[in-house]
Design brief:
Chain lengths: ~150, ~150
Amino acid sequence: MAKLIDTCSRELMDTAPQIIQAIRVEMRRGRGSDISIPLFRTLGFVQRNPYSSLSNLAEHLGLTLPSDSKLVDGLVKQKLVTRREFMADRRMITLVLTKAGASIVDSARADAQANLAQKLGGLSIDELETIYQAMKLLRSIFAGQSR
Amino acid sequence: MAKLIDTCSRELMDTAPQIIQAIRVEMRRGRGSDISIPLFRTLGFVQRNPYSSLSNLAEHLGLTLPSDSKLVDGLVKQKLVTRREFMADRRMITLVLTKAGASIVDSARADAQANLAQKLGGLSIDELETIYQAMKLLRSIFAGQSR
DNA sequence: ATAATTAGTTCGCCTTTCTAACAATTAGAA
DNA sequence: TTCTAATTGTTAGAAAGGCGAACTAATTAT
């Protein structure tokens, strides 16, 4: 049991970076997108959670506030996101995708998905199901509270 | 079927970065290690494949040669790795861990594993098994040839 | 009213990564 | 064999992502 946990930990440490790397490469060569993973994650989160605050975003991405502020800054300059102050508490900001932002994130996702799908194409339904279940488990474990 | 593939792809894109982020954080607060993920991966690969060439390493990490050269440079400066020219083909170099390198990578791995193990601790044996199987599948898909 | 907390930003720093240009060595072709 | 190709690494320069520390502004608590 303890051994299985250790094996899993080691597998995670080995495999997760490789997956990221593959996604990064696919993201880069995606026509119509060419966006980095952190930017993609940011846009994706804002898309799923419009009017989110910066802290909220930072917590979900597992980054510090300064890091996130900078990320968002870049996105605002590219007009992919709007940063507006929240009237009920004027310390906060709310983040919303622009149309351009939504279209970028959609096409980046489509590109990456297409490339990933091709890699996953050789697997059986059972194997895909295993991966799906594993990702659900891992996501619930690693979601958010890493900080 | 196609839908399952897409779902899996999306899960991968969402979850893999979160795992990485968690590992990064755990790596950083690990006493006795404090090493970044790329450096850890490099040391780990050299440990498992002593006398590897730089290209070999780069291919496995999915990085370009210059990136790797610089990474290794840092490790050599810290005396964690030795870079020696390979006599039979003097263009190549061979990489070997120093004792300090081995000890760093071991303790970093132990730290990260301990922290990951704690997170995985709440899972059942079946769930761990699912994750293990999934990682094996993913590793075989994403190993190496991403470039 | 003042102190403490919270939300974001700015600053300065370091690391990771890339491309482009280069040197050195080896392998291949004329 | 000699000249050209290809391979292996390195250097230089730039961009991006991450951090902590120090700051401002707004809100909440004492």
